């Protein structure tokens, strides 16, 4: 069994709180490790080290910072297979999916190599006679990232690449369910030449989170996780004077119009609903079938399900792995039961699938005739369960989405450009796909939902990420000719 420690001052740091949490391999159900759970005092020690390191890192030239990011990016690319294996061993997702997660995180490192350009301010010459005005971007100091289990490498990479490139010290509190990927990243940062203390990992649970949220030297908190916790993080962090962006859960609808290409829509629905066993915040959990496409669409989705291969993430033939824990698997199975009881038509029942004996596996479920009052519709299920809601019109489909409490991602499948454009205009969701089921923005845009999917006003990574991890200072400057100044009590005018 491995012991997963903290990472403080550029090296592993064994916990002293006396509290540890178990880490499992979801494909076998075996406990594989123990992770240290930090006390508030340990968090404070880690933040003190980060503060000192951050003060020096802030002074490092933009080219030096960019060089570290380039090196980090190269190391991440070279070791992506190793990192994917670490992810699979604790999260359970299949290796190809874990490699995909690393590839998307790598894009954030690539974006952050451009930090000299991204940190540029603006300059106005002669704003008043002999007076120039310019803006500069500066880092915040020590910033924290608190991340979920479902992307143990990508979500930390969303945050730490931009935060560090812009001159901050970054303290990561990863999910206690799969913490090893964070330590892997810590080693890469060190190898890339990042000064000790600029990247820190404090493992832990609520106690560590609360210590970060209330620590006076943490300037900002970037959070990704479930909506109730996101709301708590936002409220507590801002009440303690911090800048906070807190991304929450989701209920992503995929609208299929009657003119959609049937096979493409069915392929997309299956990939987006069951990939990573549905444990993605951008997973499609509801298909909204408009009009007469419903019957052929349900048939086409159902026809694809028996071919899906479920197995351990390390099995090269497996397309879908286990869920994160036994508790979560049982909760998801409970939603299937509740849906059936509430009157949904069970087209495929994941509870009856032929599955590996051990581990937290659940087969794929397809529920037809789901209605908005059912728990399987109202709640984020976060498992391999796809519901189909049948409506007659585009307007009904749109109303369903706009009435939903979440607004993370959505997609429309159609051959009609005008309908797609109208949808893009109408829909109250932060990320929209047109014939693309999981519209996760590329790294040079920003990621974020609306409504209960995000608390705060900046999205994650990309230009918004730079904005979040920096603050602007505006300098008004005059270099008068010697001997030309005089006392003037009037308010400054731009003449
Ligand atoms: P979670 O909210 O349970 O945990 C997220 C983090 O918060 C972890 O580090 C955890 O230790 C900490 N935490 C948990 N409970 C806490 C509490 N009561 N007080 C303080 N901290 C607490 O989420 P999860 O189960 O790890 O991840 C799945 C959730 O994350 C889903 O809801 C999913 O939609 C969401 N998610 C959202 C996005 C997005 O971009 N919007 C991306 C990935 C995941």
UniProtKB/TrEMBL annotation:
GO MF terms listed in the record are: methylmalonate-semialdehyde dehydrogenase (acylating, NAD) activity
GO biological process terms, alphabetically, are: L-valine catabolic process; thymine catabolic process
Which UniProt keyword terms apply here? NAD, Oxidoreductase
The protein's superkingdom reads Bacteria
Kindly give the InterPro entries that the UniProt entry links to this protein: Ald_DH/histidinol_DH, Ald_DH_C, Ald_DH_CS_CYS, Ald_DH_N, Aldehyde_DH_dom, MeMal-semiAld_DH
Q: Where is the Aldehyde dehydrogenase domain?
A: 21-475
UniProt EC number: 1.2.1.27
Query: Mind telling me what this protein is named?
Result: methylmalonate-semialdehyde dehydrogenase (CoA acylating)
Native source species: Paractinoplanes toevensis
């Amino acid at each position: 069994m491995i012991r997963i420690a903290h990472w403080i001052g550029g090296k592993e740091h064994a916990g002293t709180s006396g509290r540890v949490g178990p880490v499992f391999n979801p494909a076998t159900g075996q406990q594989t490790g123990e992770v240290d759970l930090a006390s508030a005092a340990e968090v404070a020690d880690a933040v003190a080290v980060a503060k000192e390191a951050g003060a020096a890192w802030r002074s490092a030239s933009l080219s030096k910072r960019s060089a570290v990011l380039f090196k980090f990016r190269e190391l991440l690319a070279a070791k992506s297979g190793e990192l994917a294996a670490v992810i699979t061993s604790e999260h359970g997702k299949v290796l190809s999916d874990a490699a995909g997660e690393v590839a998307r995180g790598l894009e954030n490192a690539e974006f952050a190599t451009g930090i000299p350009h991204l940190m540029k301010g603006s300059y106005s010459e002669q704003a008043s006679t002999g007076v120039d005005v310019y803006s500069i971007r500066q880092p915040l100091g020590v910033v924290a990232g608190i991340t979920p289990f479902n992307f143990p490498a990508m979500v930390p990479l969303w945050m730490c690449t931009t935060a560090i490139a812009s001159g901050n010290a970054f303290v990561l509190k990863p999910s206690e369910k799969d913490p090893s990927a964070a330590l892997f990243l810590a080693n890469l940062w060190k190898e890339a030449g990042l000064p000790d203390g600029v990247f820190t990992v404090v493992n832990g649970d609520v106690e560590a989170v609360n210590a970060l949220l209330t620590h006076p030297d943490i300037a900002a908190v970037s959070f990704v996780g479930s909506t109730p916790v996101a709301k708590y993080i936002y409220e507590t962090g801002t009440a303690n004077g911090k800048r906070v962006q807190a991304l929450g859960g989701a209920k992503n609808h995929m609208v299929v119009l009657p003119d959609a290409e049937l096979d493409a829509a069915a392929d997309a629905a299956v990939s987006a609903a069951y990939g990573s066993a549905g444990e993605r915040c951008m997973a499609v959990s509801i298909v909204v079938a408009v009009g007469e496409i419903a019957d052929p669409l349900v048939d086409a989705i159902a026809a694809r399900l028996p071919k899906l291969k479920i197995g351990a993430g390390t099995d090269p033939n497996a397309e879908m792995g286990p869920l994160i824990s036994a508790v979560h698997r049982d909760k998801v199975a409970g939603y299937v039961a509740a849906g059936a009881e509430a009157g949904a038509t069970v087209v495929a029942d994941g509870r009856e699938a032929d599955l590996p004996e051990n581990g937290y596996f659940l087969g794929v479920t397809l529920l037809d005739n789901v209605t908005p009052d059912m728990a399987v519709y109202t709640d984020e299920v976060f498992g391999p369960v796809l519901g189909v809601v049948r409506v007659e019109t585009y307007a009904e489909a749109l109303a369903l989405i706009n009435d939903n409490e979440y607004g993370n991602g959505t997609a429309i499948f159609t051959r009609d450009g005008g309908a797609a454009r109208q949808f893009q205009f109408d829909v109250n969701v932060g990320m929209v796909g047109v014939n693309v089921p999981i519209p996760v923005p590329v790294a040079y845009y920003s990621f974020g939902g609306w409504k209960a999917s995000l608390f705060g006003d900046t999205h994650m990574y990309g230009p918004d990420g730079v904005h979040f991890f920096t603050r602007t200072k505006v300098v008004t400057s005059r270099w008068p000719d010697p001997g030309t100044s005089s006392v003037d009590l009037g308010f400054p005018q731009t003449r």
